[in-house]
Amino acid sequence: MEQVVTLEGAQKLTGTNLEQRGIAPGASGQPVPVLPLDGRSVVYTVLDHDTVIVAGVGENFAPNLPAVLNDDPSDTAQATMVMLSGNTQKSAPFLAILFLHSAAPSKLERVTFRAKGHAHPYTVKYGPVEFDTFAKLVTDAAPQSETSVVDKLIDVLFSGKTEAKSQQLAAKLVGHVARRDGFVEMIGQFDEGDIYVQGWSKELPAGNNRVFVFDGSLNVADFSCCLFERKDTGGKAAGFSGILDPGEPLATSSIRNLFFRGRSGWNKVDVHDKRTISTARALPGQIRALLPRLGVAGDGRSRLETAAQRFDGRETVSELDVPVRVGIDFCAATNTGEVILCGWLLNPEDHVDAVHLRAGNTFARLDETWTSLNRPDVTKAFEDLSPFLRGAGGQNRHGFLVCVGELDTCLKEKPYLEIILKDGRSAYAPLALGQTTLRSALRRLVAGLDPAVASETDIIERQFLPILGTAVSPEPSVADFLDIGAVPETASRSIVVGLDGAVEKIRTLLPILALDPFLRGTPIVLSASSSVLSEQLQEIKRIATLYGMAVRTVAARNVEDKLDALQAGMETAPSDMVVCLNSSVVPLVPGWLEPLVSAYQEREGSCLVTPTILYEDDTIRWAGTWIDKEGGSHVLKQHYVGYPRRTLLGAESCEVVASTFDCCVLPKSALPESGGFARSYLGTDEKGMDATLKLRRWGLKSYWVPQVEMVHPEDGRGSERLWNKIVGQHDRSQFERTWTTSFAGLKETS
């Protein structure tokens, strides 16, 4: 029998002493962690690689404190403190969320909190422990349920400025305690951004709920839902159908879980792997089909009834029981993102609250910015719909015209009008947008408008000019070229003509150039957009072959006018001296080019030479541009515009400040090296003058040769005159903003 040795002074370790040290004896004799209550030690759990939660007992700490780990001043963390109600008055259990600057240390032995100038050191008695064990330790020490503890942590994480890190931690906490309670089987997003979900759950209540949506981080959302019977669950669960309003835009494909606070704690509804993702257009029909099965309890039904009336691709304005109707006469989306609409809205009894243009999740309100138009034809067509449309006092201003910028979503999603009534209902009208350039869209719109309407100052200044002022097009470039006849590789001079869609102009100009004996052998470059050239190419080939001409045809990209075509065509000219010619300009007599070339060569080819340009009635269109001083400021003047041709008898060649590209001679390299034609102009007059001023600033002066005369007829079509008026207002404003402050310096160099 072994001898028993008695150790004097030794004391038996009681269970109480073990608990004070943070260790309790288990049934098997192994130590089981408990929350230390001595105010000097803590237990902790690792939430992720750089976040831990510490629990202990202490005084009422401030919400945010710095903490030092393992007595190493260089190893610090920011601590978010959560105080729990305890059994003692002097101290209470606390939780400290430590946001570490780096990964959690392999061994955490000591944590020191700094508060009010004092250090509060704590020794780690046990840890790390699993979160479930950690939560049980805390709830055993504090008279609060595990769910309440998690609620407090989540409230702290979401208080103040919510960051992505806090959201992820909150998601982890909720995920630890939430119980699975059903599945989401259908999900889809409306254009407005709210999300429809349908599935089944055991504890989800009907009505308005506050839920967490997890898509990689936790997002707070309002959830309005209704319940319906699901026989396939055997009465153990109910189906739900509802609308989520997330605080921030969410992608339905990334949503994984919904967390909600039930009567007995946190619950989780998982999004099923084989869920149906419905489109925005299909959702209203799905909800309408489900409405008869939905319960009437809660506030969710009214929200679903409203959602069931959203746009599903159908026109519903004509189904309204009030005198509201809509029609669209013109609608186009431009390549720069603008949308132009012209139509009418019948609203004689003022039922309409707002009109929106929608495409996907983008919308723009129209009725606050559109310009009203007089439309008596609409009044007559619907006069039986409302008494306010009959009689002499009937309303006629039903028309509208609006230009909306920065809605490039309309080019990707199908757009529609949303008519919002004052009673809260909405009706819809789908739109079929044509896609074209901004300039082409406005040209087509103006051509279909009453000239008196289109020229109204309100329309031009409020609708057209703002979007025209922001439109910028890419530089023109050569896509391809084709030679007809023997075009030499190099020549002393070549004529470059910019073409538009008017075939009759080139039919007139080419024979005149071919029959001029002084131009025999001179290569001619005809440049146009690819679409225009393809339409005119056969006619050009016929004329060039008939007269034995050397013609190079150039198909160009990004061409919006003749000057764009001219710039692209100059790149392919086979000579250093280039004669630029507008396809609408016609010489009066043969031999017109020789005096221009002589003036050009006299100045050693370092200038721009231009003839006189006349209207077809023998009045002057252009005969030099000068800078004059008026009222203390410098202005650009054309002294002879509108005067009879005979006014210029005896005039001598002279230097001018600016010139025109209707007809001019200049070095081939000058235009591209000076910056080319500006892309902010819509017409060719100011655009050409802008280029000649840039050439002057670059070092190339302009000269006018008055004895050479060319004719440039004015376009007589009404729609073109109206378009030119709009273009003129815009371009003059653009030109003045660019050059007015430079006129004084340009005058000194002349």
TrEMBL record:
SUPFAM superfamilies per UniProt: Nucleotide-diphospho-sugar transferases
Lineage: superkingdom: Bacteria
Protein name (database record): Uncharacterized protein
Organism: Roseibium album
